[in-house]
């Protein structure tokens, strides 16, 4: 059912047809991009679950069997992400291997990664954010180093990705936020650390974990509205002034009173 839903939205991006959805745009944009790059022309109607794809090139969007393409590839990335996270936290190779094997043989994870869904994309960014946060914590003894900045910035990028796919990504934002508050509170209690240095730590986190994700999240919508410039099923949710900017709309280029 959801493959029919989100596959259709991927086609909308390829055809540049405006639509409205309750979720932020990143997941659907990536689905559309994967289809476009793999040669899908956006013509499959996605009318009901179970319709045969026949001659349509869907492989780029829907990874089947061993095809490590897009959703299937992102789903397969969860295994090394979980392995590295647990290895960093526990320093135990058996624990990390056990975690990886649990995910490898989890039928729910395998099934979700086979179809055109937002779930593998969301889980990719969620686990990426957790891994980046854990890696950044491990660099606490060498703050402001290249690796420290890299993992801190990558955490912010993954937070924007998680929120850009579904609003449920807010939970990983909360997790990283609590970790950051704890980290800053610990630094504030370090009497050997000057207030100037503490201010630098605070500014770095504001820049990478607040400003960077907000900028990326806003940019997603900028791309969303730039790509979807043709009239479609989502026109009615927006104002007449907005509809006048959509190619094919009855109000296109019509002068609308303030």
From TrEMBL:
<dbReference type="Pfam" id="PF02366">
    <property type="entry name" value="PMT"/>
</dbReference>
<keyword id="KW-0812">Transmembrane</keyword>
<keyword id="KW-1133">Transmembrane helix</keyword>
<keyword id="KW-0472">Membrane</keyword>
<keyword id="KW-0808">Transferase</keyword>
<dbReference type="GO" id="GO:0016020">
    <property type="term" value="C:membrane"/>
</dbReference>
<comment type="pathway">
    <text>Protein modification; protein glycosylation.</text>
</comment>
<feature type="transmembrane region" description="Helical">
    <location>
        <begin position="92"/>
        <end position="109"/>
    </location>
</feature>
<feature type="transmembrane region" description="Helical">
    <location>
        <begin position="116"/>
        <end position="134"/>
    </location>
</feature>
<dbReference type="GO" id="GO:0012505">
    <property type="term" value="C:endomembrane system"/>
</dbReference>
<comment type="similarity">
    <text>Belongs to the glycosyltransferase 39 family.</text>
</comment>
<dbReference type="InterPro" id="IPR027005">
    <property type="entry name" value="PMT-like"/>
</dbReference>
<dbReference type="GO" id="GO:0000030">
    <property type="term" value="F:mannosyltransferase activity"/>
</dbReference>
<feature type="domain" description="ArnT-like N-terminal">
    <location>
        <begin position="1"/>
        <end position="229"/>
    </location>
</feature>
<keyword id="KW-0328">Glycosyltransferase</keyword>
<dbReference type="InterPro" id="IPR003342">
    <property type="entry name" value="ArnT-like_N"/>
</dbReference>
<feature type="transmembrane region" description="Helical">
    <location>
        <begin position="202"/>
        <end position="227"/>
    </location>
</feature>
<feature type="transmembrane region" description="Helical">
    <location>
        <begin position="149"/>
        <end position="182"/>
    </location>
</feature>
<feature type="transmembrane region" description="Helical">
    <location>
        <begin position="66"/>
        <end position="86"/>
    </location>
</feature>
<protein>
    <recommendedName>
        <fullName>Protein O-mannosyl-transferase 2</fullName>
    </recommendedName>
</protein>
<dbReference type="GO" id="GO:0006493">
    <property type="term" value="P:protein O-linked glycosylation"/>
</dbReference>
